[in-house]
Amino acid sequence: MILVTGGTGFLGGHLVSLLLRRGEEVRVLTRVSTPELAASGAQVCEGSLLDREVLARALDGVTRVYHCAGLVSRDPEVGPEMFRVHVDGTRLLLEEARRAGVRRVLVTSTSGTIAVTPHDEISTEDSPYRIETVRRWPYYLSKIFQEKLALELAADGGPEVVVVNPSILFGPGDVRLSSTGDVLRFLEGKIPLVPSGGINFVDARDAAAGAILAMEQGRPSARYLLGGPNWTIAEFFARLARVSGVRAPIARIPDGAARFGAAVVEGFFRLRGGDAKAPIDRESVEIAQHFWYCDSSRARDELGWEPRDPMETLDDTVAFLRERFLGGAPPPRKAPSFLETLVTRMDAPPTAQAENAPPPAKPPRKRRTAATRR
């Protein structure tokens, strides 16, 4: 039995779908079930990640856990809740997993724990945690502490832990706009300026496949960056314009002026009161002025992970957002990618009742050099 936390989220939804297509027995821990989840064939356990009794019930009979639950927000006021979910929730889950005899836990983190710098620099799994860089961004700071805690508990006799660090997730299916909200704003013509930073993104479907490969073949206590191209935001906008037919912004202003302007707008909206949100915030501006470049060679070499063409991801992202939020026509159905097909056809790993069975065959490895900008 497999437990997935956060199975109704963007990444979790794709992960649950892949696991079910593999014929796995899947249970999903969720605060609120959805009709799609209930109809998927997965077992549903409703409740909070912060409730030990709920966790004990969800972990009954489970040997592997995909921990995808999280809270995504750029609002500093949500910071304390993000720490509760990411740090306290992970601690409770791993403690209860140890009591339940779970063998391995896959923790889904973010590339932003290590792959974010003020300068044009490509990070790897050996890069340090960027605590000083992200100290004002509660989401990324809480994910650093989540990773550190999970690895410490694993070293202290808990279940094996493997961490995956996907970059920003694009692709179809982000109904909550947790990752693709800025793409929708681009399509609506609501991004007037070109930030000075750089972006790395990965298809959520490929990240889900990477999570399965890391669970089955990843080294204990290892981290695996799952990323795609390293582009400046100007390059990203140009490619997004090519796919969507929407004109890309070209105006630029100095970084300091952009941060000052965002602070003024935020202050004005606070003075107005009410529930209205400022159209731009300082955190988003600062994030866009950094470089989120990463190298996914470890996942390629050790796991056989091969993401799809990034232009296909952008095309599918635009098609989904237009259908879901802008009244566009449904996009044509596509065949599964090579990576999705590979993962769904691979043999499942030995269960707790058959630990002496031979390990699953690994996919062919493709040696690559360090990532370059595409």
Summarize this structure briefly:
The protein has 374 residues and is an alpha/beta fold. The chain is built from 14 helices and ten strands.
Named at the architecture level, the CATH assignment is 3-Layer(aba) Sandwich
* Domain tally: 1
The Rg value, from CA coordinates, equals 20 Å
The CATH topology is given as: Rossmann fold
CATH 4th-level superfamily: NAD(P)-binding Rossmann-like Domain
Order of helices and strands: EHEHEHEHEHHEEHEHEEHHHHHH
Strand content: 5-15%
Number of DSSP strands? 10
Strand neighbour order, sheet with most strands: 3-2-1-4-5-6-9
CATH class descriptor name? Alpha Beta
From the spread of the alpha carbons, the general shape counts as globular
* Through-space gap between termini: 40 Å
Class by helix and strand content?
alpha/beta
Largest sheet entry: 7 strands, parallel
User: Treating each run of at least 4 consecutive H or I residues as one helix, how many helices?
Assistant: 14
Poorly predicted parts: 351-374
Name the average pLDDT: 90
- Helical amount among residues, as a percent range? 40-55%
